[in-house]
Design goal:
single chain, 7-stranded parallel β-sheet, binds NADP nicotinamide-adenine-dinucleotide phosphate, Rossmann fold, alpha/beta, globular
Length: 252
């Protein structure tokens, strides 16, 4: 690990938006700790990787206590960011086909683990350190897309949890007192050319009758590249003076 004074913990660095974000932060001299099941294949002196399954709560708790706590409390950091980026896209069937085990797993990966990480990091990072939390959201957090009920639900809940976290930062009832210089960003990256999009357009319309928009995104050239949608995230976590909760969508 190198000598920079800014730490970013980024989930889902083995693919897509998370990989692009980690690469951009490393180029800007952030120390980056990536978390995913697969290796990220990033060779950089400021990068280290924690292999963890966000669907395994006990495993994540062990990582938080054994790896993240000593790291996040290191006195060298002037700024710590958590980017909850990792997610899965869901069963791609209507809610009438809900499999409760599959739904519970998706909610653990997309909602429970990110909320746990938000709370853990907010409660661990020293009060004098600038704290920035980013939850990668989706249009599906605020609009009802048929066939994406599990994913919509998971992103809506994460968005609200970010709002509550920010309200707690600003509450004088917060154990430990107000958390100053802390802010949460809920960011919709738009439609991005990643393996998640590939999976979403790969099912036949018999399997996923609501899948045509995903095929159209590709055919009509509407997909953004991951490198092109991360600027607002790097700007937010590097910046000062934001409101405790900020929400934006790529491109406006
Ligand atoms: N692509 C889009 O159009 C789009 C649109 C709106 C929002 N988003 C959001 O953007 C974020 C990134 O998505 P992406 O498009 O970059 O997808 P992606 O290429 O499929 O990457 C997903 C990342 O999440 C990690 N991940 C998934 N399940 C995990 C688990 N159980 N434990 C640990 N890590 C796990 C994956 O790592 P491993 O497989 O190695 O574990 C991978 O690094 C997600 O929150 C997604 O909802 C994407």
């Amino acid at each position: 690990m190198g000598s920079s004074d800014r730490l970013a913990i980024v989930t889902g660095t083995s693919s897509g938006i998370g990989a692009a974000l980690a690469t951009a932060l490393l180029a800007d001299d952030w120390t980056v700790v990536g978390m995913a099941r697969r290796d990220a294949g990033i060779e950089h002196p400021l990068y280290s990787h924690i292999a963890v399954d966000l669907g395994d709560i006990d495993g994540l708790k062990r990582v938080a206590v054994n790896d993240l706590r000593p790291l996040a409390t290191d006195a060298r950091w002037e700024r710590v960011a958590l980017v909850n980026n990792a997610a899965i896209s869901g069963g791609k069937h209507g809610l009438e086909g809900t499999d409760p085990d599959e739904l519970a797993h998706l909610l653990i990966v997309n909602t429970v683990s990110p909320i746990y990480l938000m709370g853990f990091i907010a409660g661990t990072v020293l009060p004098a350190v600038a704290l920035r939390i980013v939850n990668i959201s989706s249009g599906a957090a605020v609009r009802a897309f048929p066939g994406l009920g599990d994913y919509c639900t998971s992103k809506a809940a994460l968005r609200m949890a970010g709002m509550v976290m920010a309200a707690e930062f600003e509450s004088d009832k917060r154990p430990g007192g107000l958390r100053t210089n802390a802010a949460v960003f809920s960011y919709e990256p738009g439609v991005v050319d990643t393996p998640m999009q590939t999976a979403s357009r790969s099912k036949s319309l018999e399997e996923f009758p609501w899948g045509q928009p995903f095929k159209d995104f590709k055919e009509q050239g509407l997909l953004e590249q991951p490198e092109d949608v991360i600027g607002e995230v790097t700007e937010f976590i590097s910046g000062d003076g934001q409101d405790a909760f900020v929400e934006r969508r790529f491109g406006g």
